[in-house]
Design brief:
This protein is mainly α and 125 residues long. It contains six helices and three strands. It has a three-stranded parallel sheet with strand order 1-2-3, with helices on both faces. Helix 2 packs across helix 5. The longest helix is centred in the last third of the chain and has 19 residues. The protein is elongated.
Length: 125
C-alpha cells in the first residue's frame, strides 16, 4: 500500500509531485532522464551506482546510491528516508537545487560552447 508501480504514464509530473521518494534500482543506465525529472520535482533519489547516475546524484546530499543487485541496501535506503522526514526533505531540496543549476538550457549551452571552444583551440595548435 506504500509502494506503487506506475508503469508507462503520460502524467509524469503529476506522479512525481505525489511522490515522497524516487527510486531507480537498475543494472544498466546511461544518463537517465527519469532521475533528472525526479530531482527537478524535488525528490530524494535512491538509485543504483551505475552509468551516469553518480554524476547526477551527489551521494548523501541528494540521495542514496546503492550497489547493483543490492536489495538489502535498497530496503535500508528506502527505510532511512521513510523514517527521517528531515533528511528526506533536505535531500529533496538539494536535488531540486542541482536540477535548477545543471538541467537547464543555459547550462547546456555553456557546456557546448566550452566543448566547441576547446575543440577549436586543439585544432589550431
Amino acid at each position: 500500500e506504500r509502494v506503487r508501480f506506475w508503469g508507462v504514464r503520460s502524467d509524469v509530473a503529476d506522479i512525481l509531485n505525489a511522490a515522497d521518494i524516487f527510486t531507480l534500482p537498475s543494472k544498466y543506465e546511461g544518463n537517465p532522464m527519469a532521475v533528472m525529472e525526479a530531482m527537478a520535482a524535488g525528490l530524494p533519489v535512491v538509485a543504483s551506482r551505475v552509468g551516469g547516475i553518480p554524476e547526477l546524484v551527489e551521494e548523501e546530499q541528494m540521495g542514496i546510491l546503492i550497489p547493483v543487485d543490492g536489495e538489502p541496501c535498497l530496503v535500508q535506503a528506502l527505510q532511512t528516508l521513510i523514517d527521517d522526514a528531515a533528511l528526506r526533505q533536505r535531500m529533496g531540496q538539494n536535488a531540486l537545487q542541482r536540477a535548477r543549476e545543471r538541467f537547464n538550457i543555459q547550462h547546456t549551452v555553456r557546456q557546448y560552447e566550452a566543448l566547441y571552444d576547446d575543440l577549436l583551440h586543439r585544432r589550431t595548435r
